[in-house]
Structures are given as structure tokens and as C-alpha cells.
Design goal:
Shape: rod-shaped
Distance between the termini: 78 Å
Strand content: 15-25%
Largest sheet: 8 strands, mixed
Structural class: alpha+beta
Number of domains: 2
Number of strands: 8
């Protein structure tokens, strides 16, 4: 019989007899088990009280001489069921619920021993089945864990035999027969209770694995897509396309990157790009932009998508100025300095996710092409912006008119260089 409880991947083992996890996982299991069991515990108290009360019907027929005493005992036990039911709604019940339920089961079982003591023989033997019912309930319906149920059942068995030895005068044949019934009931109930808890714990492990994988997948998706788009895509898979009337788009790349890449080892090249783009990623978070993608040595970001914001030109301007400072700082420790050029444009775009594999949030439209042209026609270590972006920035930033330049695919355009912030 496999009792290890180890998942097929890297799940922790379940201890063979105690059915316990390592401490932290055990704590989480107890919390989860309580949340899933508390309603069942309440129902168990109601069912237990009803079943216990139902047997009062036969008391006057079987043991008329002591029926009133047994009824009083039943009233006390039913009251205990009611008190435990009320306690399940208390704020601290989760801390002591296993001992409380175990105590209730033990009290119910011992009450059957009391009935066997005060009732006359042989009629009292008809109540012996009540102890077996309590044992079965302890291992199954009352949501006790295996070890508390085992302890309660052992105490009930010992109490029954002690009462027979020191108080009752039960014939040996009946005593042996009843002990065999208790033995059989305990064996069956033990196997049922043990495997029930083992199944519950394995199910808990599987759910923990699934939740961990889902959380990991969510982190990956959120690193690839904007949070709002990721949530929407997971909720409603399919094409996502939205039109934005005005956003600001920025492209930046490394000057003479092709020549540089031919002179250095691939590992050094990748390390350099990772250092620069990781610094840019931090700036994206700082200024609340959306990183769209990287292609080779080109870095694309935007503001105003997918979350609208009125200050999108200013946010991109701050980002671009900080990029120059970051590159200058990184160059201080480099033997061969890196130079970048940046282009910015403000205009309408369509944004969204298309395709069925390797989802990526992207932008389409003439504004994207224009921003790309601003970058490719920019001078090293400069930030070139279009007239549309200039109109948004001129009140708060220093901009220098570069003059009309010939832009591939666009013809002659008047552009500006973003120099810095106005003081």
C-alpha cells in the first residue's frame, strides 16, 4: 500500500502513520481542511443529535424501568451536540475544533456505556450497536483526522471492557462476541478513515501544485502582456483590438550596433543588451509606461495604452531623458561607450493581441511607423520628436528645432530635438 503521498513532480512526502506534512505545509493544510470541513462539522452535530434522539423511541419498550434516566442522559448529550454546533460559529473555533469534535464523539460513545451499565441484562445488549455507530462516525462523518479518531475509538473500546470487568456482569460469550464486533468495526473504520485522510491530503497537494503552476503562468503572462490585457485574454480568449485616438510611442536603438556586434563575443553582446534593456525596464516601471517589445537592439515603449492617461507625451519625454542618463552612467564603466538615438511621435494607433501562439501586445498604424522613422533618422545621443509631440511638450521642456529633414516614406518633415526640462 503506497502511503508516501509524494506527487509525481516534487511534492513533499506524507508521513506514513501520522499522515503529516512538513510544518509550514501542515499549517496550510489544517487551514484548508478546516475551511472545507466546518460546514460538515455543523451538519454532523445536527445529524448526530437527531440520530441520538431517535433511539429514545425504543427506550420505553426495551428498558421501561430506566427509560426516564436514559432520556435525561439523552437530553444532556443532545445539549452537548447543540453547544458544539453553536461553538462552530465562534471566532476561535478553528484553533480547537479537532479536540472539540473528538471530545463530543467520546462523550456520545461513553454515554452508550452508561446506558449499558444502568440498563438490565439482557435487554441492554441491544444498545451495544450504538458504540459501533459512534466509532464509524468518528472515522468518517465527523471530519476527525485519523489519529484523533483512532484515539477516541481506542478509549471507547477500553471503556467498554473496563465497565464489563468492574461493573457489569456480562456473560463471557457475549463479551467475546462484542469485542470481536468492536475489533471488526475498528479495523474497517480505521482503513476507511486512514485512506480518506490520505486522499484528502493528496488532493490538497495536487491543488497546491496546480495553484503554484497557475501563479507561475500568471506571472509569465503578466510579464508578457499588460495586466488588463492578460486578465481579459484569460477570461475571453481571442483577438483583442482597440483604437486609441492619441498615444505617444517611442523607439530607441544603439548606434552602429551591427559593427559593434561583429567585434565582440555573442555572450558579451547579450550581456550588454541585457544590462541596458533591464535598466530601461526599470524606467518603464518608474514612469508607468508600457514596454511593447524589443527587436534586436531596438527598444519600443508607449504611454496611453492600454490604460488611458492625459500626460502620455510628458511620461515618454521623462523616460527618454532618463534613458540618456542611464546610458551615460553605464558608459562610465565601459571601455567602449554605447550611444543611443531615440524617436518619439504622438498620434492614433490600434493596439491589441492577435494570433494563437506566443501572444504579444502590439501597436499598429501610421503613428508607429512615424515614431520608428524619428528614431532611425535621429542623431546619436539625441531624442527626436515630431511636431505633434512638440506641441504637447513645448511648455515644460527645452526643445530645439532641427528643421525640415527628408524622412524615408514620409517626405520632408519638421522635427525637434528634446534637450531637457525647463527650469
Amino acid at each position: 500500500m503506497d502511503t508516501s503521498g509524494r506527487s509525481e513532480s516534487t511534492g513533499p512526502a506524507i508521513q506514513g502513520l501520522t499522515l503529516k506534512f512538513p510544518p509550514e505545509l501542515e499549517r496550510r493544510f489544517h487551514e484548508d481542511y478546516f475551511q472545507k470541513s466546518v460546514v460538515q462539522v455543523r451538519i454532523g452535530q445536527i445529524v448526530g443529535a437527531l440520530v441520538y434522539a431517535a433511539f429514545a423511541i425504543i427506550d420505553p419498550w426495551i428498558i421501561p424501568d430506566v427509560a426516564s434516566q436514559v432520556w435525561a442522559l439523552r437530553a444532556v448529550i443532545i445539549g452537548c451536540f447543540g453547544l458544539l454546533f453553536a461553538a462552530t460559529f465562534g471566532p476561535n473555533f478553528r484553533r480547537y475544533w479537532q479536540p472539540a469534535v473528538a471530545g463530543m464523539v467520546l462523550v456520545a460513545g461513553l454515554s452508550m456505556d452508561i446506558v449499558l451499565i444502568i440498563a438490565p441484562w439482557p435487554e441492554r445488549e441491544l444498545y451495544f450497536g450504538g458504540i459501533m455507530l459512534v466509532v464509524m462516525a468518528a472515522y468518517t462523518y465527523m471530519k476527525l483526522r485519523f489519529l484523533p479518531a483512532l484515539l477516541v475509538s481506542a478509549l471507547l473500546w477500553i471503556a467498554y471492557d473496563l465497565a464489563d470487568v468492574f461493573i457489569r456482569d456480562t456473560p463471557v460469550a457475549i463479551l467475546v462476541t462484542n469485542n470481536l464486533y468492536l475489533f471488526g468495526t475498528n479495523v474497517v473504520a480505521m482503513f476507511a478513515g486512514y485512506h480518506m485522510e490520505l486522499y484528502i491530503r493528496r488532493d490538497f497537494l495536487q491543488r497546491q501544485e496546480i495553484e503554484a503552476k497557475e501563479a507561475q503562468l500568471s506571472r509569465v503572462v503578466l510579464n508578457v502582456l499588460p495586466p488588463s490585457i492578460a486578465e481579459r485574454l484569460m477570461r475571453e480568449p481571442g483577438t483583442i483590438a482597440e483604437r486609441f485616438s492619441t498615444v505617444t510611442i517611442m523607439f530607441t536603438d544603439i548606434v552602429h550596433f551591427t559593427q559593434y556586434s561583429s567585434r565582440v563575443a555573442p555572450e558579451e553582446l547579450v550581456a550588454m543588451l541585457n544590462e541596458i534593456f533591464s535598466a530601461f525596464d526599470q524606467l518603464v516601471e518608474k514612469h508607468g509606461l508600457e514596454k511593447i517589445k524589443t527587436i534586436g537592439d531596438s527598444y519600443m515603449a508607449a504611454a496611453g495604452v492600454p490604460t488611458l492617461r492625459e500626460d502620455h507625451p510628458q511620461a515618454v519625454a521623462e523616460f527618454a531623458l532618463d534613458m540618456l542618463e542611464v546610458v551615460a552612467r553605464l558608459n562610465a564603466s565601459r571601455s567602449e561607450p554605447i550611444r543611443i538615438r531615440t524617436g518619439i511621435h504622438t498620434g492614433p494607433v490600434v493596439a491589441g493581441v492577435i494570433g494563437t501562439k506566443r501572444f504579444a501586445y502590439d501597436l499598429w498604424g501610421d503613428a508607429v511607423n512615424t515614431a520608428s522613422r524619428m528614431e532611425s533618422h535621429a542623431l546619436p545621443d539625441t531624442i527626436q520628436v515630431t511636431r505633434a509631440t512638440y506641441e504637447h511638450l513645448r511648455d515644460h521642456y527645452e526643445l530645439k528645432r532641427r528643421g525640415p529633414i527628408e524622412v524615408k516614406g514620409k517626405g520632408e518633415m519638421v522635427t525637434y530635438l528634446l534637450v531637457g526640462r525647463k527650469t
